[in-house]
Amino acid sequence: MITLNIAEISVGVDNRYPLSQWSCEEHISAASPHFVVFATEKEIREECNRLKGAFSLADCESNCLYRKVSLGMLRYDAFLLHAAVVAVDGEGYVFTAPGGTGKSTHANYWMQEFGNRAVMVNGDKPIIRLINDKFYVCGTPWRGKERLGNADTVPLKAICLLERGAKNEIAPADADTTLDKIFQQVLLPEEPESALKQLDLLDRLIGTVPIYRLKCNLSQEAAKVAYNGMK
């Protein structure tokens, strides 16, 4: 078993396959875990069946583990959001959208635009955590196929709902659009009490963090337009 530091929470991961340890090396900690997760052989094979054999058993274990870690995080006012995150001058900007929209591409444009002012926190599955009434965005070992990210925890400055568009334009998102778009990108628990906890955190997030709607054509100019609109 290994212990990981994710979002300033120690998580024990009882893994079967080396991939899970290799992919988590930057997060390994010597602290005692707050909670422990593991995936049974049955769960791993069910995950492979769900993915129609496109991934190895090790990949399927990793998927199972990140879901269990994410659900366990709810006890600590934290949850997973399917998004890419870049920190500029120490503040986190989150880009969320359905798969294939261009989150990682847009995040890379920020890295090019802002140079050493920018840090890629996570390219796919960050954790959002409420600490002392302030939201933070946190790196995780689950970073997408490009493996973009680190183990940082940074204050959450703003969230951007990313859409394809002919030109680059940004504006504050309305409440209905925000709830619908973000709700699609979280892992909603089946257990009622945990689901209510998730909904409460989302309500607080939407009520306290600036959220914008960005239409962009996936050019580097989009990074400048987005930053100027959100900073």
Q: Any low-confidence stretches, pLDDT <50, length ≥5? A: none
Q: Give me the strand/helix succession.
A: EEHEHHEEEHEEEEEHHEH
- Total strand count, please? 12
Overall mean pLDDT score?
A: 90
What would you say this structure looks like, in words?
- This protein is of the alpha+beta class and 231 residues long.
- Helix content is 35%, strand content 29%.
- It has helices at residues 18-22, 41-50, 57-73, 103-114, 175-183, 192-208, 220-230, and strands spanning 2-6, 9-14, 35-38, 78-80, 84-88, 91-96, 118-122, 127-131, 134-138, 153-164, 169-172, 211-216.
- The strands form 2 sheets. Strands 4, 5, 6, 7, 8, 9, 10, 11 and 12 form a 9-stranded mixed β-sheet that branches.
- A hairpin with a 2-residue loop joins strand 1 and strand 2 (9-14).
- The longest helix is centred in the first third of the chain and has 17 residues, at 57-73.
- It is globular.
- 39% of the residues are buried.
Provide the fold topology:
Elements: E1 2-6, E2 9-14, H1 18-22, E3 35-38, H2 41-50, H3 57-73, E4 78-80, E5 84-88, E6 91-96, H4 103-114, E7 118-122, E8 127-131, E9 134-138, E10 153-164, E11 169-172, H5 175-183, H6 192-208, E12 211-216, H7 220-230
Parallel strand pairs: 2-3, 6-10, 10-12
Antiparallel strand pairs: 1-2, 4-8, 5-6, 5-7, 8-9, 9-10, 11-12
